[in-house]
Amino acid sequence: MISEKMVKEINDQIQRELFSEYLYLQMAAYFKGENLDGFAHWMEVQAREEHIHAMKFFNHLYERGAKVILQPIQQPKNDFKSPLDTFKYAYEHELTVTKNINNLMEIAKKENDYASESFLKWYVDEQVEEEDSFLKIVSILEKIKDSTNALFMLNSELGKRE
C-alpha cells in the first residue's frame, strides 16, 4: 500500500508536471510570435513529454490503489526577452524539477516504498537527460550571441526534434 504522504506528494508532482507542460507551451507561443517555428516546435515536443510524465504519475497512483486529486495550474511566465532568456529560464525550471523528483525518491526510500522507488528511478534518469538537453541549447545560444544566421541555423535544427 502506498502511504498518504506519498500520494499527496505524487499528486503535487502531477500538478508540477502539468505546469511544466503549460510553461513549455507558453514558451512555444513566445517562439511562434518571434517567427522561430523550429524553437516553437522543440518546445511543443517538450510540452507533450511533460504531459506524458504527468500521466505516468497519474497512472502510478491508480495502479497502487490511490486517488488522483488534480490541482490548479498557475499561469506561467510569459515575458521572455530572447531565445537565450527563454532557455535559461527553462533550464532553471528543470533544476527545480530534479529537486522535486529527488525529494520524492527520498520519501520513497524513507518509507520503504520499493514500488515508488523503482518507478521514480526512470524520472531520476530522465532528469539527467532533460538538464543536459536544455544546458546544451543554452550553451549554443551563448556562443552565437547576436548572429542571426546562427540563430536561424539552430532554429532549423531544433525544428527536427521528434
SSE layout and pairings?
Layout: H1 4-33, H2 37-63, H3 83-110, H4 114-144, H5 148-158
Helix pairs in contact: 1-2, 1-3, 2-5, 3-4
**Proportion of residues in β-strands:** under 5%
**End-to-end distance, in Å?**
37 Å
Largest sheet: none
Q: Domains counted in the coordinates: how many?
A: 1
For this structure, what is the CATH class?
Mainly Alpha
Query: What is the mean predicted local confidence, pLDDT?
Result: 97
For the secondary structure, the number of strands is 0
Secondary structure: helix percent = over 70%
CATH superfamily: Ferritin, core subunit, four-helix bundle
- Helix and strand sequence: HHHHH
Dominant shape: elongated
CA radius of gyration: 17 Å
Structure characteristics:
mainly alpha, 78% helix
Concise synopsis of the structure shown:
This protein is mostly helical and 162 residues long.
Describe this structure in words.
This protein is an all-alpha fold and 162 residues long. The chain has a single domain, classed as Ferritin, core subunit, four-helix bundle (Ferritin, Up-down Bundle), CATH 1.20.1260. It is built from 5 helices and no strands. Helix 3 runs antiparallel to helix 4. The longest helix is centred in the C-terminal third of the chain and has 31 residues, at 114-144. It is elongated and about 55 Å long. The mean pLDDT is 97.
